[in-house]
Structure formats: structure tokens, C-alpha cells
Design goal:
The complex is a heterodimer of chains A (341) and B (341). Chain A has helices at 2-28, 34-38, 44-53, 60-73, 81-90, 113-148, 153-167, 170-184, 196-235, 238-245, 250-277, 282-288, 293-302, 306-334, and strands at 75-77, 96-98, 105-106, 111-112. Chain A is mainly alpha-helical. Chain A has two domains: 2-112, no CATH class; 115-340, Orthogonal Bundle (MetI-like fold). In chain A, strand 3 (105-106) and strand 4 form a beta hairpin. Helix content of chain B is 63%, strand content 2%. Chain B is built from eleven helices and two strands; from the N terminus they run E-E-H-H-H-H-H-H-H-H-H-H-H. In chain B, strands 1-2 form a two-stranded antiparallel sheet. The chains are: A mainly alpha (341), B mainly alpha (341). Chains A and B meet through helix 1, helix 7, helix 8, helix 9 and helix 12 of A and helix 4, helix 5, helix 9, helix 10 and helix 11 of B.
Amino acid sequence: MIAYAIRRILVGIVLLLSMVLVVFVLFFASGNPAKSVCGKFCTPEKLTQVTKVYGYDQPITTQFGEFIQGLAVGRDYPVNDAYRAALEKSNPDLVIHCAAPCLGYSQHDAATVNADIAKYAPVTISIAVFAFIFWIFFGVFFGVLAAVFKGKWLDRILVGVTLVVYALPTFFVGTFLLQYVAIKWQLVPYPTYVSIADGGVGGWLVGLTLPALTLALFYMAAYVRITRAFVLESLSEDYIRTARAKGLTERVVLFKHGLRAALTPLLSMAGLDFAALLAGAVITESVFNYQGLGLLAVIANQNSDLPVLIGLVIVAGAAVIIMNILVDILYAFVDPRVRLR
Amino acid sequence: MSTLPPGEFAAEVTANETVFAPGGPGAPRSSTVVSRSPRQLAWARFRSDKKTWFGAIVVAVYVVLAILAPILVAAGVLDPYTPHQNLIGDNGLPAGGAAGVSWAHPFGVEPGIGRDTLSRVWFGLTLSLLISSAAAVFSVVVGVVLGIIAGMSRSWADTLIGRLVDLVLCFPQTLMLLALSGVVVAWLTGSLHIPKGDPAQATYVIFVLGIFGWPSVTRIIRGQVLSLREREFIDAARLLGAGNSRLYFKEILPNLWAPILVQFTLILPAYVSAEAALSYLGISVNPPTPTLGNILKSSLQYASADFLYFIAPAFLLVLIVVSFNLLGDGLRDALDPKSNR
């Protein structure tokens, strides 16, 4: 068990490193990244200076090595040693230390990428958690309902509705909720993010309702269909027939024998979907203009802010990799048939 | 039933009829046992499913319309570009109510600029189908080739492809689609000399959707190949001296047409949605060239002012996506009755 966990973690680290490498090659292969840092009014002299100060004149292998080193032990900006040494003497405030998992420095925001992400992460995590609870609860509930009433009108309605909801574009649903539910009909206050510190738990929840609902609807539709399929599959197993044959009530058959086997595979899917959301719900956050990681990505993309984009991709990938490992280990506890080796 | 003659296992017995007529060999039997090939069985299952028919008809109409549109635009029947400012009222909405519907503009004109709605939507269908089907072909071709290689090789190639799948699945998709747009579009226009603007954007969308779409196809195809490779005809081909490429593409590939068709039909609607989402983020083909996605995006501006113009493109998108999904689900049920739904 422990050996399994250690091996998974090692594989995870290798996966993360190869991801960082791929991201690095993708973003730096296209030309000199100093050009985007340098900005619109870029003179050749400024470009040379920027290239040097940010270390973009180094070979890509060196840059990659330093980036990995920064992830492991942190690093100082600007990265050019001679330049930094001079700066330390003349103006020590301008040297920025970026602590251990250092993801880079954004010239555009004049802040480390870590600071940027820390600033925008609370909104994204709030939306993700709220949406997750919502979609798991209703998705599984309606999915089980549809499976139990298979072929009846309730099942047909649920399947039909989920097909349509699943096909609705997120930005359409979000705009509808914003323009009609919030502004025109005023059923809920205009959605703005309120942190727990400012508005208490109540204000926080009210502020999150519409974006979380927008996000949850899509996943809910998918989970109704998946849950239904899993439950139907598990209800057609032999042990269910045995349970019925020995005279158990339908309720015990369903909740004690049917659901347990059906819902364990859902666990791993839910974990991965949640991890993917931690990278930011790009579209939902843009529609409601919530300052989350998704919006940070949109802004960084508009500004060609490569360090922020790279940092976001790495954080998101790490979330998926870590969640993958957690889910696999958790799986063994929930499902006694799984043996880890 | 246990006395069915060998060779008639695939037979289906019509209900309410005697199966065997008494009498020795040569005695006339009532022709109630009809043997059917797997293909006929699949067709029978397909034919009896109304939902699948609905999907198939809508998809067929969609494809025909999409093929006709460029011809009609070239012939001057459809005109998606000319503005008709004279039809727009002072408030920016079509004058005279009813969205400006007239004989010349059966679906009215666009608010703001006054281009013909029917022409834009119709021509937009073509580009959306073109982009999403090209991306789907890309995903499926890469997915199938790698899936066959992974499934057939019993060595490092399988491991390598497996790890590659893990790696690609780690990347947060929406974020990557957004983050890569600047870099990849620059590379496409710079190194591959694809003209800037719409062609480069369309190529980008096809390229990234394809790159992030193949892993799911590879997993499914690999699973199929793992069982196919143990069959006798593969041994026979090997004994006859068939090389790897013959084995892969002449022996294995033709046996995979059913899962390939199903995967293609299920991936395509996902890409139609994805193109719309990318349009919303402004990284797909941009107006004035119409696609379903950017028509949807522009309709969001009139969400509260012009309800019909707001929901009509979304309704069309949902209709197309749902129809493709119904067709794909129906095909899967017909071709693989054991699949769980």
C-alpha cells in the first residue's frame, strides 16, 4: 500500500516534470519571449536589454534548469546575475525573492506569478467547491432516480432534459442567468464575489450562486447520465438477483447493494473533474467577471503574459496529477475488490 | 431452443410462431427461423429507434444545408456580409418590430449592423461543420493509429503511448486552448505561412482540438485491438507472412469501423460546442466571417434587448449537438448491443 503510494507519487513527479518541459518548449519555441515582455513600444535596445535581464539569451536547457530549480528552492528576480548584483547595491528593494515553488515573475503585473495566483485563487476555489457540491448532489440524485424508474416517464424526462442541458453552451446559460434572472427579474442580487471575511458565509454563498449554478448545470447533466448508466449496470449484476431472491426489500437492494458498486467509479471521475476546475472556469468567470484564475488566464492571454500562462498551466496540471493519485488510493478504501500493488 | 441447428446462432425467432415443424430431414419446415447477419441485426436495432432517426434526419439536413451554403453564397442567393442600415431603427434593433422579417430577409436582420440573419446562420453552419469535422478527423486519425500501435505492440511502444495519453490528459484543456492561441497562431502564420486572420485562426482551432482530443479515442481503440489481436485471423495473417503494416491497416483496421464511426459521431458535436466556446473567448474565426460560435457570441450583446435573436442561435446549436449525440448513441447501441447505457 505504502509502496504503491510512493511509486505513484514518483510517477506523478516525472509526469509533472515532463509537463513543465512540454509547456516550456511550447511557449518558448515560437520565438523570443522577450518580445511580449517588451511590449508595444519596443526599441531594439530595449529588446536586447529585456532579453538579457530576463535571461532569455541563455540556452533553453539552462532556462529550463533554472525554472526547475526555482520550483524546488525558489529564485530571485531579475535572473541575470550581474544585473541583480548591481541592483542589490543600488536599489535593493527592486530585487524580488520568489519563494519555493516559484512559478516565475510577471513583468506585466510587476509581481511573482505565485502572488498573482494566490490573489485570484480564492474565487476559483469557492466557485469550484460550491459547484461541485451542487452537481454531485443533484447529479447523483437524479441519476439514481432515472435508473430506478428506467423506461418510465420520469426517466424519459430526466434523460431528455439532461441531453439538452448538456448541449447548452456555458456562456449562453451564464448570460441568461445574469441578464434575466439577476437583472431583469431580480430574483437574486446582482452577482459579485464577496469573501467570507467581508460578507460572512451567507454573503459568500449568495454571491456564488449564479456562477456556481452555471458551472454545475453542465456537469450535473453529465453526471445524471453517467450515474444512471452505472446504477443500471450494477442492478443487472448477479448479486443483485441473489439479494432480491433472498427476500431483501427493494430499498435495501438498491441502497446497500446496488449503489455501493455503482457509485465508486463515480468517485474517481468526480475527483478529476474537480481538479480540472481548479485551473479556473474560464468561461463562467469571464461571463460574470469574477476575478478567478480563469479570468486571470484570459487577461494574461490578452497581455501575452507568458510567465502567468505557464504558471497557471503547471498549477492546473499539478492539481490533476495530485488528485489522480489521491483518488486511486482512496478507491482502495472504498472498494474492497481493488488491491493495490 | 437448445436444439437449434448449428450455424443458426444468429437467428432471431419471430414471436408467436412455431419454431420447428415436426418431420425428418427433408421434410418442409415452416420458414419462421430467419438467419440474419450481424449487420442486419444492427440495422434492425437502428431502424426501430425513433430517437436515432430523429438525430439522423437532423444531421442529414444539416450536412446538406452546410454543403449548399457556399454554393448559394457564390451564386449571390445568400448574402451574409452586406449591411442594411436602412432596416435598423434608432434603438439599434431592426425597425418595424418582428426582427425585421420581410420577403428579402425571411429570418430578419441582425440588430446593429443589419446583415441578413438567414444568410449568416446558414453560411455559419458550413464553417462550424468544416472546422469541427476537420478537428474530429484529426483526433480520430491520430487516435486510431496510436491505438492500433499501442494495442498490437507488446513492448515499449504500448507503454510510451500510454504515458503520452496520461501526459496529454494532465493538461487543462480550456486553459491550454486559450494559452496556446498567441504562440501557435504566431507559429502558423510565421513558419507555415498560413494567411493571418480567419485561415490561421481556423487552423489553430482544428489543430488544438485535434491535439487534445485523440487520447480518448486511443484508449477505446486500444481496448478493441487487445481483444482483436487474439483472434485466429490475425494468427493466420501472421503465418502467411504479413508484415506489421499489413496486419495493422489491412487486417485490424477494417474490423474497427464500428467504434471509429461511433467515436467520430460523438466527438464532432463536442467540437461544435468547443468551437462556440472558443469563439466566445475570441480565439476562433472572427466576424464578419460567420460561424455558429461567433453568431452566438454577438447575440449575447442583445440578450436583454432582443430575446428571440438571443435564443435562436443557441437553440440551433443545441439542436445540432443533441441530434449528433442521439445519432452517436443510437449507432453505438445498434453496433455494440453489449455497451452499457
